[in-house]
Amino acid sequence: MVLVTGATGLLGSHLVLHLLENNESVRAIYRNPTAIDKTKSLFTLYDKEYLFDKIEWVQADITEIPSLEIAFQNIDSVYHCAALVSFDPNDEKLLRKTNIEGTANVVNFCLDYHIKKLCHVSSIAALGNLKEHENIFTEETEWNPEKFHSDYAISKYGAEMEIWRGQQEGLQVVIINPGVILGPGFWKNGSGLIFTKVKNGLSFYTKGATGFIVVNDVVKIMTQLMKSEIVGERFIAVTKTISFENVLNAIANALKVRPPSIYVKPWVTEILWRIDWIVSTILWRKIKLSKSIARSLHIFDSISNEKVKTALNYKFQDIEEYCIEIGTYWKK
Hints:
By secondary structure, the chain is of the alpha/beta class. It is built from 13 helices and twelve strands.
């Protein structure tokens, strides 16, 4: 039986669906009962409701060790998708607890229960820092602790350290570092919020760029890596490096709305994140535009996907074409 953490998120839900379509027995972890409805809605979106009842749900929290006891019983392999994604500096402690301590707990249980293989979902945020003579991020890009990193990036890098510790203690592991994952069904958070904002008339864009990938490609790469003999490796999972402007235009085209037309320069976002910090401090609300996000909007990160293409002979789905496909699910 396969165990999936984070099964109520965009990636976890798609992973569970894919595993069930391929006749795998799946046990999925959830924290809040209402969160299961998100996964069920996704199955309905794909007209796969008949598969939903095959999921064996277990209420557990990766940061609460006692709750994981039942979840790991009779499990052969584990997909660790659960993580907190936040760029609010006020969430530093929660990020470390969830992403680092939570991953450490998963690794320890995998070791204790003699799990055959663990696939950990990391992020391109954990890749490291380019040196002066480098111009493209790869799996070998070194992490420089003296450089600025968001709390989220630090927590994902720390989580990877726990995975490598597990490997040293005898656990077979593989790590995947996805870029921004695009997929339907989760319109109120994560990348799904981009579709909602564009549909509602987003006017602004920046000219930064990063790696994007289709959710189904992430799922297929994960499952292929788990079925392979590859262990002790990490793989970047991005279709290509694409500008935020082009992604927003593709989404606008798919949703049949006007694309963002006002270019926001770097000095503007520098002012905006400071204003947002002041307002959030006064009103005691979560930060909407952090310093790390504001600056990343103008950075062109060129990211290589050569390693995974070579290892799996993998061909990625086109981002622009997939945005049109997501548009059809938006209508549903």
